[in-house]
Amino acid sequence: MTQEDVSYKDKKVISIGIVSELTGLSVRQIRYYEERKLIYPQRSTRGTRKYSFADVERLMDIANKREDGVQTAEILKDMKKKEQALKSGQFKKKMLEGQINAHFRYKNR
Question: Which of 67, 76, 88, 92 is deepest in the core (most CB within 10 A)?
Fold first, then answer.
């Protein structure tokens, strides 16, 4: 997938300073969440972190959960569970589409 194929929401184009302004989080907090594997910024050739709008939304979600007292380990566990469920749902959808396509191809012969 090329950069042009990526939704505007997922393009990694926002600097950490702007992300800090948008979220109200300090640069240190944002880096900490990266260290805890809660966020994955892209790095430019010069090593500058670049974030997407989806990353900003994720950081806001993390900040809200932290304000509610949820630990980062629990947030990570929950995120992995949601990602796995999404992947599983996508896999099931593809399997169903394949079965439907195979069924109708077979009937049309």
Answer: 76
